[in-house]
Design brief:
Blueprint (H helix, E strand, L loop, with lengths): L7 H4 L6 H5 L9 E4 L5 H10 L9 E2 L7 H10 L2 H11 L8 E9 L13 E8 L11 E4 L7 E5 L6 E5 L6 E2 L5 E11 L2 H21 L2
Antiparallel strand pairs: 1-7, 2-3, 3-9, 4-7, 4-9, 5-6, 5-8
């Protein structure tokens, strides 16, 4: 007898927002939280299976990838006011009316992970990892005290349900040691203006198109 496939309603909520509310807000070297088990256990395998199939490096905007119903519901839940309000409360920031940007990564190249801060138009960065397990030292995102990748304030293993949220600033440096292979992550940003969101969508769409044809 085949196990019953649960509908979204039967499976219950995807995310455990209490993990955000209860997470410690770290303020040095910049404001961030790290939470595990943000995705409820009954959803983990089905969301890993439903993650867009990406074999090339770089970030891909959602319109450029094929999404299943479960993955679409995850994105919809992240984009809901309930999650926004939990982030606002944790970081003491008003995000109401701010546009959001979503991109996904499925494959890490050796040259990825260089130390950087996000662009000034980003307010909050959310990273939600979707990998079943992680044994490598490379590919673990490091939150840094400066521009040296070995000057580590915290390190994040990219296992499924691990959530990192940080407030962008001029010294929110992050990066990771080299790794090549599958590395699945959803990136969400609240940004300052819609025109920035539109420009980023156009840029990511163009680069995704170039990646698609580069190998043909």
């Amino acid at each position: 007898m085949q196990p019953k496939t649960l509908s979204a309603g039967e499976a219950g909520p995807i995310l455990n927002l209490e993990r955000v509310r209860c997470a410690e807000l770290n303020t040095r070297p910049f404001n961030y939280i790290i939470a595990s088990n943000f995705i409820r256990p009954e959803w983990e395998n089905r969301l890993i299976a439903d993650f867009p199939h990406i074999e090339k490096g770089g970030s891909f905007p959602l319109p450029s990838v094929k999404m299943g119903a479960d993955f679409f519901q995850l994105i919809d839940t992240l984009n809901h006011a309930h999650f926004r309000r939990a982030v606002e409360e944790k970081f003491s920031v008003n995000l109401e009316g701010r546009p959001t940007i979503f991109t996904v990564r499925g494959y890490c190249r050796r040259e990825d992970g260089k130390v950087h801060t996000d662009s000034g138009s980003k307010i909050i960065t959310v990273l939600l990892y979707m990998n079943p397990s992680w044994a490598n030292q490379g590919g673990r995102l490091r939150l840094l005290n400066g521009t040296n990748v070995n000057d580590v304030a915290a390190e994040v293993s990219p296992e499924v349900g691990t959530l990192l949220i940080f407030r962008r600033c001029n010294h929110s440096y992050h990066g990771h040691l080299p790794f090549e292979g599958a590395r699945k992550v959803i990136q969400m940003n609240w940004v300052t203006e819609q025109k920035y969101a539109d420009r980023e969508a156009k840029r990511h769409k163009w680069t995704a198109l170039m990646k698609r044809f580069r190998f043909y």
